[in-house]
Amino acid sequence: MRIVIITAGSRGDVAPYTGLGRRLTDAGHQVTVAAHPSFETLVGGCGLDHRPVPGDPAELVRDWSRATTREEVRSLTRAYADGLAEGVAEVVADGADLLLTAFGPAPLSRTAGEAFGVPVIGTYLAPSCATGQFPLPNARSSDVLGPEGNLAAGRDVLRRAEDLFAGSVTLLRARLGLPTHAPSAPVDVRPVLHGFSPLVVPRPEDWPSWVEVTGYWWPARPDGWHPPAELVDFLQAGPPPVFIGFGSMAVGQGERLSELVTAAVRRAGVRAVVQAGWAGLSGCGDSDDVLAIGDVPHDWLFPRTAAVVHHAGAGTTAAGLRAGVPAVPVPVMADQPFWASRLCELGVAPWPVPFQDLTADTLGDAITACLTEPAHRRHAAELAHGIAAEDGTASLLARIGALRTG
Predict the structure, then answer these.
(1) Hey, what CATH class is 2-216+390-405 in?
(2) Alpha-carbon 213 to chain mean position
(3) Three-state DSSP class for 77?
(4) Which 3 state secondary structure label does DSSP give 204?
(5) What is the pLDDT of residues 226-274, one digit of tens each?
(6) Is this structure's pTM higher than 0.90?
(7) Strands (E), 337-385
(8) Pick the CATH number of 229-388 from 3.40.50.2000, 3.20.20.150, 3.90.220.20, 3.30.390.10
(9) DSSP secondary structure, 87-154, as one string
(10) What angle do CA 203, 207, 213 make, to 5 degrees?
C-alpha cells in the first residue's frame, strides 16, 4: 500500500512519524513523509522517502516576531497555509492509497483525500477531540472548567484550528474541482489515533469509539548514527548531567538564554548538556561543566542524564518519560502548558517554570528541586517501565490491515 504521512511544523511535529514510517515500511508498505524541505535530512536519514511541502516554520516564527500589526501576522500565516495546501495537493495527486495526517494540516489532508478518493486516518500527537474531562491543549485557559466548560474550550480549539486553514481549504477545493464551499460542519477525519501513552493521558470516556489512544510512536534513529566523541567524553568525565534545551522555541534569543542557563547551572551546582535548538543556545564562559551540542537522538542521550529541562513539547516530553528521568518543564506556547501540567500531575516534575518567568534563579531552583526529591525519579522510572510495554503502532497496523481486506 502507498502511504503518505502529511505533517507540518517543527522537528517535534515530524520526528515521531519517522518511527511510524519505519514500522510501516517493515510491514511491507511504501511510505512517503510529506514535510517541509528543512526535514529532508531527518526523514531521508531514517531510510524514508521525503516529499517537500512549501514552508519554513523557523522563518515563519522569525517573521511573526518582527511583524508590527495583526494584519501582517495574518498575511504571513495565510501565505504559509496556501503554500502548504499546494504542496499537499501535489503530493496526493502523485498517487496514494492512504493518507495519515498530523493534526495541523488535517483540513488540507481531508480535502485532498476527498478530491482523490483516498481514505484519511488522523495520527495526532496531542489530544485533539473535545472532552468534558479537561480543556484541550491550546485552550485559551488551562484551568479545569467543569465538563461543560471543558467541552466548550475544546470545541473552541478545534474551531480555531479549522479557521487557520479555512481560506486555503476554499482555494484548494476550487483547484481540485470540489464544491467551493465545504459543509458548515466539516466531515471529521475518521478514525483518529493519538500517538501518546494512555498512562500519560488516559482516553476520555466521552470520546467517540473511532478515537483511540494507542501509545507513543518513537522517532527512528538515523541510519549509521554515532554519538560525537566530545559528548561521550563529557558524559564519562563526571556524574550524569542535566539536559537543557528549548527545541523550536525562543528563536533569536540564544545569547540571552545561554547566559541565563549557565548561571542557573552554576546556581544548582550541576553539569549540563545544552542543546542549541532554534534559539541557538551555546555554552558560555570557560566552564568544563557545560557542553553545547547540536541535534542528538533523545532516546540515546536522555537515559544518560540526571534530569531534562525542556519546553514541554509533545515529542521531548515523551522522550523524557521514555528515558525514566525527571523533568523541569519550561512551557512557552501551544500544547506545551498542557504537557507541562501533566508532568507535574504524574509526579515526575516539581512544577512548571513558564518561559516568561524564566530567570537564572527560577531555573536553578527548579533544577535543584527536581534532583533533590527522590519521588520524581521513582515516578519517572515506574512510568517508563509501563510505557516500554506498549506498542503504539500495533493499532494503526490493524486499521490498515482492515482497509486492505475490507
Answers:
(1) alpha beta
(2) 16
(3) helix
(4) coil
(5) 999 999 999 999 999 999 998 777 777 778 888 999 999 999 999 999 9
(6) yes
(7) none
(8) 3.40.50.2000
(9) HHHHHHHT--SEEEE-STTHHHHHHHHHHHT--EEEEESS--S--SSSPPTT-S--S--HHHHHHHHH
(10) 35
